[in-house]
């Protein structure tokens, strides 16, 4: 694990230019979308019936890691606000934790590093069909939510990001089962180094039982809500709202 005291002094830079990965390009083609999601409801229904939601995703050895972890989605938010944070090595970045909580939090990168850490080597599966194995490190999301104190009405956790799609921040959501899953972490390290910009610096979500588009990058806000009705167009995530992706992307 990376020493916590190095959180604000490490090299947190890299990547440039907002371009779409293959994962995003392919879904712009209607025929490709139809093929990608054909039979999806039946497959995921079977998955849910056969596997417990709290089961662990497979973990791997260091020797099994992929030589390169390609980016999915945005490679660099490219906004003035994000560039300013990057220039300061994210010392001024804060993760806002709010919504239906009793103790709203504003967490720095060093705050997250001071929490108990989880390191895991897991496989990232993109909806396009590629996968890669990498090591991730960060506190469990459940640790952060317990510190904030969820209210009884909370049912979902919504993530708002620094990258923009159509001029609005990217967003995603998960339910409390995935939020408190032991492998759901707020990762600030990839393969024992600080996250590169193209992979979501300074912090990204890792929700290992779901496909890659659920792993929100460039996190800025974590919010507990009672319903997804007021989030975007009501489906709980950018791709769910705009490209008919499933909200639950279990693998």
From TrEMBL:
Pfam families: Oxidored_molyb
Domain Oxidoreductase molybdopterin-binding: 91-224
Lineage: Bacteria, Pseudomonadati, Pseudomonadota, Alphaproteobacteria, Sphingomonadales
Listed name of the protein: Molybdopterin-dependent oxidoreductase
Stored Gene3D superfamilies: Oxidoreductase, molybdopterin-binding domain (3.90.420.10)
Domain of life (superkingdom): Bacteria
SUPFAM superfamilies given in the database record: Oxidoreductase molybdopterin-binding domain
InterPro entries documented for this protein: OxRdtase_Mopterin-bd_dom, OxRdtase_Mopterin-bd_sf
């Amino acid at each position: 694990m990376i020493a916590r005291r190095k959180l604000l002094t490490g090299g947190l830079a890299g990547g440039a230019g907002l371009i779409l990965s293959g994962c995003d390009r392919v879904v712009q083609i209607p025929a490709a979308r139809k093929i990608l999601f054909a039979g999806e409801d039946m497959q995921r229904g079977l998955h849910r019936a056969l596997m417990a939601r709290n089961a662990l995703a497979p973990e791997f050895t260091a020797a099994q890691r992929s030589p390169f972890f390609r980016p999915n989605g945005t490679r660099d938010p490219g906004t003035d606000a994000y560039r300013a944070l990057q220039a300061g090595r994210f010392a001024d970045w804060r993760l806002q934790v709010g919504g239906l909580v009793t103790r709203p939090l504003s967490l720095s990168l060093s705050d997250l590093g001071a929490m108990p850490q989880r390191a895991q080597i897991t496989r990232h599966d993109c909806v396009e069909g590629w996968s890669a194995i990498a090591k991730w490190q960060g506190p469990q999301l459940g640790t952060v939510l317990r510190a904030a104190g969820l209210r009884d009405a909370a049912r979902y956790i919504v993530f708002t990001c620094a990258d923009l799609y159509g001029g609005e921040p990217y967003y995603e959501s998960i339910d409390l089962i995935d939020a408190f899953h032991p492998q759901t972490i707020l990762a600030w390290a990839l393969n024992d180094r600080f996250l590169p910009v193209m992979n979501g610096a300074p912090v990204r979500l890792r929700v290992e039982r779901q496909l890659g588009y659920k792993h929100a990058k460039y996190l800025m806000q974590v919010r507990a809500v009672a319903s997804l009705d007021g989030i975007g167009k009501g489906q709980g995530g950018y791709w769910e709202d705009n490209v008919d992706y499933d909200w639950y992307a279990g693998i």
